[in-house]
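[Solved] Which block belongs to which protein?

Original post:
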Amino acid sequence: MERNIKQLVEQGLITLVLLVAGVIMYFVVGSVVDHWRWYALLLALWLTGILIHQISFHRKSLAVNQQRQALLHTVTNAAPVMIWTVDAREVVVDIFGRALENAAFKREDAVGRNIVFFDQEENDFYGHLRRALNGDRFVAFGNVGGRFYRHHFFPSGERKLNSQGFQCVSVDLTREAELDAQLKLSEQVFNNTTDAIMVMDHGRRVVKLNKAFTTITGFEERELLGKRNGPSWFNAQKLGFYKSIYNALNTVGAWRGEISAKRKSGEPFTGHLTLSLIRDETKEVSHYVAFFSDTSDLKRSQDELRYLANHDNLTNLPNRRLFLDRLEHAIKVSARTNSKLAIFFIDLDNFKLVNDSHGHAFGDEVLKEVGVRLKAAMRGSDTVARLAGDEFTVIAERVRDTIEVTAVARKLLQCFERPFEALGQTLHVSASVGIGIFPDDGENLVSLMKNADQAMYKAKAEGRNGFYYLSGEGVGNLPGGLFFPSELRLALKREQIEMAYQPIIDLKSGRVIGCEALLRWNHHCRGKVSPADFMPLAEEAGITEAIGQWTLDEACGQINEWRHLGIDMDFVSVNIASSQITDPHFLEMVAEAISKNDLDPTSLMLEVSENVALRHLERTTTFLQQARKLGMRCAIDDFGSSGNNYSYIRDLPIDTLKISRKASLTIANGPEQTRLLKALIGIGEVLGINVVAVGVERSQQEEVLRELGCGAAQGFLYAKPMSAESITDVLPDMDVRVIKNAS
């Protein structure tokens, strides 16, 4: 329409120009030329102008149409489309476009033919063509020649009778349809697989989870979307674990392995994880995909089967199979380390009579109780097993000598001293123990077991309720106060060294300001042994370094634990041995223990006894100076016990004096006997040093100490030395009254 208006305007301008020219010519030459000739000339000029304009306009239109046609072909060749032209006679005039390349028919098969051509193969498409002939403008979807298209129909201007010519633009959507079908299939697989799937972007932020992930972990998708690395369902692992994952991703693009994880509820579980990365067209990482399955039930079943295969179903002790496996391994270790091990064959005496007279149900209960008692009597590293019937065995590794073997045998026999009670019946049961020592009684599994078995029958022949071993001649008991260095070394390895803590009380406020850490040796024969009995042995044998390291790690670790529990304690004090003062590496050990537990140096107080300080005054002074430089508290313990001149205190860099227990006890002897105590407290007051009275056992002592100006006290009046767990339980409010009530 716009084009026609433009053409009429141009023709009108030409006519106007010719009329003006004719008028001018009329006045100029009108008198000369006849009128009819003038009109003929004017008409000829007008017709000539119109002809020239039409030729020019046609050329322009042809050029524009060619440009449009070229642009149309460019567009259709760039996009997967076909353009159909059908005239009013229902004949396909033309088809063109890149989509023809994939069509099931050729252009020449359709152009020039009636649309009935499509009725045979493409009924749906033919129906769309018939609708378009009615002049409808619409969009339809359907298949043509095995390809899926979106058809845009719109009428052209040509019309004949009841038919309207039209054009159709068909966009090939076959690839999109295939991708959509694949996407829907992938979505169904994604949501219906039993393996959990988590998809993360390149920044490891969660973008998608499947239903199995929620089922296994309990986390909903809305809780985790956008969160980095997903939930905290991976249990803490060593750094090397994560390094191995990243190395595998960087080299092969995937990692597979077993993981320990936890559900939203905190319940732990095991799973098999496959972690893969996806790269885009530029080879950059675009996504991470984690596939994992819950293997807890499978692992639990495997563990149960493994347990049942290796344990006795009555006592739950290792059975013969596991016993032989552990014994073989223990023999190899002992041979490699040149150490000894002992096996104990334990056979209940006359147990057949027990079953016959009391019944098998009672006998089974006795066997279960025997297993419990034997296991309780041995170390955690030892093996207690049931071979068969009423036969039990024990493997004790790294035994020192026959003396220790004898002590273990006696502990085993002590398990039968108490009567057995079950099903309303009570019965005394005894046992005979045969002992085999590697390598004395056998250098391999077979010979060792054979000799232990023979020894057990020897024990029965000797009258039962005893023990026997073939290489045990000349064995006797040790004197009560005698220890060997090897025993002390073993005590550390066997975790027989323990730590007790005794609170230190501020006499003004009643608050617990600190604790003294006290070593205890839980000897396997002699019970609890105090440091006064075994530390001299440790000094002579050079074992103080190992004991000191253990003490520092234990004390600093406990301070750190109390701090996290919110227990407000100023310090924990540890006693320093004479050899540690001269050890150049000891303070390095102290600093390392403090740093490892992220503690303030003032959290630890080092106590040197007055006796040690006077014997090594110069070394003690240097040691305390170095300790103070590191920021630690320093104290002289047992102050006042020597009875000498106390002027040496002035030159020592300390902040605490701990008055000896002997001086504190003089309060009970009357006012005159408290002069020494008053003088000792006065020294601390003059020097500006904190004073702690040790050995306070009665309220009278506390009252006198408070009157004399003593700042703090320690003793049985408040609490006996307690385990760390007891300290944690009784000090929720740090109130001395709580300790008194608990004690």
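(Second protein starts here: sequence line, then its structure tokens.)
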Amino acid sequence: MNLAEQLLHEIDDSTLSQEEQARLRCRLAKELEESGDYEAARDAMGELWQRVGERPQLDDLDRRTAAEVLLRAGSLTGWIGSIRQLAGSQETAKNLISESLAIFETVPDSEKAAEAQTDLAYCYWREGALDEARIMLRAALDRLVDANSELKAVALLRSAIVEKVATRLNDALRIHHEAAPLFEASNNNVLKGKFHNEFGTVLKNLGAAEQRRDYIDRALIEFAAASFYFEQAGHTRYWAYVENNLGMLFLTAGKFGKAHEHLDRARRLFVSLKDGGQAAQVDETRARALLAEGRVAEAEAVVRAAVRVFEKGDEQSLLAEALTTHGIALARLGQFAAAHLTFTRAREVAELAGDREGAGQAALAALEELREQFALAEVVALYERAADWLAQSQHPGIRERLIQCACAALRRLNASRNDAPVSASAAMAEGADAAFDWQGFCLKDEVLQHERQLIERALKDAGGSVTRAAQLLGFKHHQTFIALLNNRHRSLLAARTPAVSRKRSIIRMRGTHHVAHSRAPVRMRPATILYVEDDSMVRATLKETLELEGWQIEECADGTSALQKLESRDRYDLLLFDHTLPGITGLELARRARNFPHRRATPIVMLSAEDMDGEARRAGVDKFLQKPRDLLSVVDTITRLLDTLEEV
């Protein structure tokens, strides 16, 4: 009997007092809410609270119990309002949670007050009010400073989500590292899955921003770990979240076919759950993929439908994001007036919600798509607003886009000037009041020249060490500095010490190629791997990871069909088994494989959530890996075993 079933059984006890029954209903509702079953959680509240927009029944309840009922009703109002895109739902949720917070502070109950603040922060986040969300989460964490609880883990995770949305990606990454020990200590599979899913999203975004292929690799593995934990918990909604994130990852990598496959699965799952809000988010992501493919008319139709959904609810950041994507599509269709109005509305919606990042993104997109339609004064004014709104962004791509817009504005300014006073460099030497000679001037060229001189000096002072030079120049990550050298200042590469080769990436970014291991033997054909895993989400994710290495993957979902393949004369260069399988376990498959003469020398890798290294080796397994901890090692492990086989 799981906890939900146990609570249902206890609620039926007729000897319980009204307060005891109410508290049990709140516990059951919270358990169901955390599993993503929000409608069932609402039903669990019974007569205490029956529908969104209705005030809970608090008659004859003591203050502490009444506060608990208010908190549950408020939190569920936020979730259900998001799913159904109900207007006013987030404000209603905030009012209920704030009322519960006031009671918890006077009872007093510091931990419950922190829980209320954490839920209140999420309502602000949904509306796009990121500063208010931060304030609430900081207050909650101040109450939990000495705790090592799941509540503190949730507060940290939500803090990371806020920073991710604000594109403060390094801050989000730092928070994930800080929170990791709390999640590792938890026995809550749903909570662990949420952590790995969000961590994967941050790594995906950083990987795209900084051209860090190792981050993209790690993101894939984090999503596989999230899928594993959600499968253990048995929650469809969270599988759909992972599918959507995988779609975004493959969009980032320019692999549009894969992106659409994952987005299709995510949308089907969200529609089956009647979650219109998340289905609309999938549509907005798909529109971006279609724009990247040049399928502009299709993108416009898809994102227009997403905008209609978000217009019904309170999630203003999502509406602003969808409006920005819609504006881009309209501009590329040549509908400039409609695009202008759409970008303006996106800025206004985001700014009104307090989402400076969203307002800045809308302004920047308008500059990129419509600058030739604007007067020069409008371009300058819009650029200044975009730069102000995006001043806190840690996304290198944002800064690069702002520079490009500034350079375009300067080119127009240069073309519009007829006078020719002293040169720009001379004017700067004379002082701010001197007139510039804008003839042939380009801000980007001037900035690049100055940047090159600084980098050259830093490399010289660092003795050629890129790590040390990056520190001197104030880079947080030396990989960002390396990308700058490779992309903008290749002439300075000779000034650095020779680079040490890194391991291969498990996914190719668009426009990049693998560099083979110098000692790896050259195969005349791709290796073929028999992969046996019953969890479809984990199997699909890991299969894609392995195929991106160039290996051919033949998959099975159960031990019985895998045994038939092992008995056949089909050639497999390596066998990859999960242990817990329908029909025949992975251990038994390994034993059977070693009894077949043509499989005795085939390397076997086993994955299992259980710690069974010794049993696996006695069964004939060459390498045992524990899920999800060792998922990052799968590619390297297979590579080593295949290379050893070639050498033999």
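Accepted answer:
You had them paired correctly. Confirming on the second one: The two ends are 53 Å apart (CA to CA).
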